[in-house]
Design goal:
There is one protein chain. Helix content is about 20%, strand content about 25%. It has nine helices and 17 strands. The strands form four sheets. An eight-stranded mixed sheet has the order 10-11-13-12-14-15-16-17, with helices on both faces. A four-stranded antiparallel sheet has the order 6-7-8-9. A hairpin with a 2-residue loop joins β7 and β8. The longest helix is centred in the C-terminal third of the chain and has 19 residues.
Length: about 400
Amino acid sequence: MNGIYYESDRNIIYVANADPTNLQITSVAGDWDRSPDVLAWSNDGKTLYVAAPDLGRERVFPIPVDAAADYKPTNITNEGVPAGMQVLSNDQILVSDSKIWSSRDIYTVNSDGNVTNIYFQANLVDPALSGLSAQDVSEFYFSSNSTEIDLQSWIIYPSNFSEQKTYPLCFLVHGGPQGGFYNSWSTRWNYKVWADQGYVVIAPNPTASSGWGQNLTDAVSGHWGDYPYWDLVNAWDYVDTSLPYVDTARGVAAGASFGGYMMNWIQGHPLGRRFNALVTHDGVTNSLEDYATEELWFINHDEGGIFTSPNETSTYYRWNPILYYENWATPHFVVHSDMDYRLPVSEGLMLFNMLQVKGVPSKFLNFPDENHWVLDRANSLVWHTEIFKWINYYSGLSNANSPY
């Protein structure tokens, strides 16, 4: 990376001689507008196999070690996100990856991109995943006023989906903000688990997302409250006008970390009135308190500079969700854990207390033994149970008398 204080700067590949007296360090495909994060050498040492986020997936690309700066790699895998890869003695590449519909696939692919052997597919072996397939997922691209490129979103369908029926919208916003929603399996935010409550899940990749070029990733710095918000509004508009099987009038929205911040921001803006319920997991409520974090370097970068003064010229002030407190009205579920030092638990407590004072239906869920993520299995079950109870009530999927 060129930026020492920026964790999401573009990764650039360099090679060097093993001779410390003659290193000759050179970049490989140095202008390639992707950020590789996994590397494996070919057996003859002439090629690097690299994995990099690309268009909502993480794909494997072969790159000659002597590739010029303007070299444009071509992917040899398509769907999924690799957990690891190994070049075998026969020059085939063993890939272990996951997909939205499968927690683990293991296969080999050759340098031309042909799959030569499939050794394991979890959705065909694990009874708990039986019936999951690529047909559960599709995607669309939409335009936005924040960028000249079209932006991508995943669609995840519930079981027994029919285009002749309608399903309430579940609108998810990813964390980071640099990062993305990828075609991968997760035990924390598993799109299909949410969809199988009876929703069509929409998971957009707005400004800040990785895999569509570094400019899109970088553009969120100093712009937390405008560019990605505009993108989410445009994604919602696309769904409302183009997907007749999605009932946006019964929609709910949820997000964690930056996604949680965005729930708090949406709550005070017009998009918040388009949802029947919101869920914030570990999100910023008061950006003037951003310096309570143990990741100060991150805040200094993403807010566009160090904290100077709490006035309208500062992004710490401009993109503060509580400035729009008077507009808060949508029922709101809040999760925050005591061991989250990236975003202290006081952010969640403040959000919940302010919602209560405002008279907005709200609930607070706290895990004293969890950090920025909920990792314990029993805690995860509570997390899912309580959140689904909340959103299913407000979307009309539940016959319960109360969301509590």
